Amino acid sequence: MSAYCWFDYATVILTGASSGIGKDLAIRLVKEHGCNVIGIARNVERLEGVKNELGALGHKFSYYSMDVSNKECWENLKSELTEKGIKADILINNAGVLPKFDSFLHYTTEEIEKAMKINFYSAVYSMEVMMPYIMESERAGIINIASSAALCSLAGTSVYSASKAALKSFTDSIREEVRGKCYIGLFCPGFTKTSILREQGEVASGAQKVMDFISTDCDKMVDMIIKGMWQKKSNRVLGADAKMMCEGNKIAGAKFNFICSQVMRLSGVSLFKSIFED
Predict the structure, then answer these.
(1) What is the pLDDT of the chain when averaged over all its residues?
(2) What's the pLDDT at 265?
(3) 107 annotated active-site
(4) Residues 6+ apart with CB under 8 A from 181
(5) Checking CA distances to 164, which of 96, 136, 148, 246 falls within 20 to 30 Å?
(6) Ramachandran class of 229: left when φ > 0, alpha when ψ lies in -120 to 50, beta otherwise
(7) Radius of gyration of the chain (CA)
(8) Rounded CA gap, 228 and 223, in Å?
(9) pTM for the whole thing?
(10) β-strand pairing of 61-65 with 235-238
């Protein structure tokens, strides 16, 4: 570390810590900033893998396997941390799920509720339960990882975009309510090369090439997130595709969405096919 950073050696609660952005973020926070990271996810094997990957620094990564969309789980976590005398400084809500690209009429109620619970309500519950606890710290911070879909909703992403837009609006409101008492950051990454596409099922090679072309490397995305945290940015749009979507929506609005839909429709990529089917 070349210079002191406000979250150096902080205790960080991080959801979605077992893979993708969350895993890389946990490792970087431990290795580069000396943080003690409390990783939250469901998959114990993957969480243990993160701990093992840290080697001699593994003692700085502890974890809890829990359902982030269950408020009672957050209450239990807070009670356990309090009993152990652990004081957390920062909460990062990173857990998320990307439903398959599809027409809204093809989604089941279960798929809709799952996306809303994990992408939105998990942050609502974590902040409702943990904010007073976090704000006891002199360097309190809460960072919510939304998505470029919160800024520009494309065809086939209705449920995902709605869940992330809800998270953005919620975060923007809370920021003003606690301004001067707690740093609140909102980061909106574009497509990132992670395993989040697993919800799409088998992705054809053509579709994968398209996604690889527009996606940002996970390491680079984590670089941008950490830089934004360091600078205490309120809002950051991360990735070339995310910035293009944000600006296109600002300038052209519905016309930009129409153009994107036409490109998706005419691309012949199987990933987008069901979006426009009756």
Answers:
(1) 92
(2) 87
(3) no
(4) 135, 140
(5) 136
(6) alpha
(7) 19
(8) 9
(9) 0.92
(10) unpaired
Task: Please give the torsion angle defined by the CA atoms of residues 159, 161, 162 and 165, in that order, rounded to the nearest 10 degrees.
Answer: 160
The two tokens of residue 261 are: 């839909």
Q: 274 phi and psi, to 5 degrees? A: -70, -15
Question: What does the alpha-carbon distance between residue 258 and residue 195 come to, in Å, rounded to a whole number?
Answer: 28
Residue ranges in the chain modelled with pLDDT below 50: 1, 204
Out of 63, 133, 160, 183, the active site residue is: 160
Letter for the amino acid at 230? W
Largest Cα span, the chain: 58
DSSP state of 153: P
Q: Which residues pair with 64 in a beta bridge?
A: 40
How far apart, in whole angstroms, are the C-alpha atoms of residue 57 and residue 82? Answer: 24
Tell me the pLDDT tens digit for each residue of 95-133: 999 998 899 999 999 999 999 999 999 999 999 999 999
